[in-house]
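Quick illustration, no need to memorize.
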Amino acid sequence: MKRLYKNISQISIALSLCSAVMAASPKAVIEAVKGNAFVTREGRTEKLSVGDYLYDFDEVFSEVGSQVTFADYYDHKFHMSGSGYVSILNKIIELKGGYLWVQTDQPSSNHFYIQTVNSSAAYSRGEFIISYDQDSGKTQILSIDGTHLFSNNENSYMKEEVPAGKFSFVSEKYENGAPRVPTPIGSSTYSSVVSLYDGIKPMDKQSNVVEDIAKVQMEAAPVGRNIASTPAPEGTSAGTVIIVKKAPMEDREDKLKSFYKNQITSMEKKYKKVPKKFKPDYSTKSHVSIKIHNVPTTRLPASVEIKNHKSTSRMPASMTELNPQVEIKNDVFEKSLIDQYKKQMRHSNEINSLIKDLKSYDQDYKQAY
């Protein structure tokens, strides 16, 4: 009994280790990136580059005008246009916004799925472009090569087979979510959809699936920016279709802002400028000659008497004595006039007293000795 329990324990441990290794194994690899693309994994947002691996539950999104190409290990290639947003779920790629071009050349006995909120496209080989508009909740599929099964997620009996050269869509506003009957697409509309990708061409370049087909307008799905969370339901096996219900969408701009904020913070720490104080150094002589031109002779203060000069010391006008400018004569009338002239003071008695006090001080107006 103990041996049996020991064997069961070893088997359970081995199974748990195998499941952990499988969960950590990569599901896809980045083959090309034009512009900026990012991946959100375990709450962290990182910038993608060629050679990076993608794992289960990774969320990949691209900026406007960017383009990302990744491939899984089943010989499938996925081209995501600008402002695209997908989630990796083993054999399922969940498209949450934008356009996704799927290319597979080798036929497979297994079915793979591109899933949106309201529809699912099953394929084993071939080539098609699928888009999802987050604002209107409309999913469209354009088959380029091969036939693909397009169905409603909630009601699996609502399905249509979309052959090459035709398109279909699923919308709640049309036939209660039933896929539209596949309709031929015009060459001009086909060219406009393919032109969303830079440098991506159909695998079969000789294919003429869109020639001589009636022109039917395929509405371009505008790219949104909202993100929906995609937790994997418990108890699901690898490769099964997961019906993802509508969930509150998050704002993808928050993740971009958080990523760039971390980048700016790290750059600020790396290239932080340290302020430097300027300190002049007089230890070495510059040996620069200084020439002074038009230097006046020795300048004396105005209060100092200059020799051989008739002028006396110069004082402010308010401090000069009121000496009469009129020559006094012996005339009685003129003498009285001069006396009265002297009595006419320019300032009040208080100011005159202050002027006399100032005369007694040396005219040195420095605060310290």
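Residues 1-9, 14-21, 210-230, 236-249 have pLDDT under 50 and may be disordered.
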